[in-house]
Amino acid sequence: MIQIDPVDLTAQLIRCPSVTPNEAGAIKLLEDVLSQHGFHCTRISRGGVENLFARWGSSNKGPSFAFNGHTDVVPVGELGKWTFDPFGAEIENGFMYGRGAVDMKSAVAAFVAAAVDFVNETPPEGSVVITVTGDEEGDADHGTVAILDWMSEQGERIDHCLVGEPTCPDRLGEMIKVGRRGSMTAMISAIGVQGHSAYPHRAKNPLPALAKLIDRLANHELDKGTEHFDPSTLAVTSIDTGNRANNVIPAKAKAVVNIRFNDAFSSDELGVWLQKEAERITAETDIAMSVEIKVSGESFLTPPGELSSLVGRVIEDELGIIPIMSTTGGTSDARFVKTVCPVIEFGLVGKSMHSVDERVDISQIGQLKTIYKRVLRDYFAS
Question: How crowded is the C-beta side of 210, counted as CA atoms within 13 Å?
């Protein structure tokens, strides 16, 4: 039986210039491969984004195990700084170069190849599901969310899910993600009265009030961490007036802060805290403050248990490494999947993701396929 080469499939995916949200042939490629091997494939199109849901087997019989990933990539950046064509998938010294090589076309290729080989060699009692989105690196409004909405409408289910995001800092196998911090951004506006800088008493300068608020927020300790999470953090990412005149007191000033929060808070609770702090400054300075909040995702945790133990045992058997169960890093689409089933993440070493000369050790692509295939085998065997 011919097995799918995940290195070759990775190269084919990299050669699709699928800068988010462009599909560029990547979803079509996976649809063709999976359809040829007995997967029932459905393209889910929403908001100009192409997504794929593929199932082998019946959702009404036996357990259902899913993989989740994305084929969209971040922009190339400064092309002249790349050693190789970012969409050429060129190999040198055992590394394949290209945008998406690490984040995360290699993992998608590995779990597609693993799933196809597994169902062909040992058809399970149950179903194997592949979900791939073209909107993870963008706003993520029409990607995995659209897939899950479609699943709900169609009565499709999954029991457990493994997301193939790069999770390892330095060595393949050293880290599994069992949760993620939440992420929210607050846009704060301070409204005063414009005036001449020589006559400050005739104006209401919003800048000192805004600076006072930002100082309070930046120096406030949100928490000391929880059992499975590091402390929540608040970072000031922008302060701006748009004022180019040094003799004018501006009428408005804006600041942006980003909060990465653990399971000690919900975004609603943090939003109430931000609003109260803004109101305190207004009371002290008579400068009106408004706070606009955008939530990228709530914190979540899949408590270490059956799923993480299974993946951890496979990693230890295959690589001789006992992985750390972690909740560090940014957000991923696992934050959406967790609403329908237990979900963890395991993938490649992420050092070069989003960088110039993004590259993957091609030997690790094969190792990752082997691990994913063993996960499927042990999951259905148990």
Answer: 27
pLDDT, residue 343, reads: 97
DSSP state of 36: T
Q: Is 279 a catalytic residue?
A: no
Annotated active-site residue in 72, 137, 333, 345: 72
Spell 178-204 as b/e; 16+ CB within 10 A means b. bbbbbbbbbebbbbbeebeeeeeeebb
For residue range 110-161, what is the model confidence (pLDDT) as tens digits?
A: 999 999 999 999 999 999 999 999 999 998 999 999 999 999 999 999 999 9
Which pTM does this prediction carry? Answer: 0.91
Q: Mean pLDDT across the stretch 37-41?
A: 97
Does the annotation mark 215 as catalytic? no
Contact 230, 213 (CB under 8 A): no
Catalytic residue, from 136, 159, 298, 345: name it.
136
Taking CA 24 as the corner, what is the angle to CA 43 and CA 107, rounded to the nearest 5 degrees?
Answer: 75
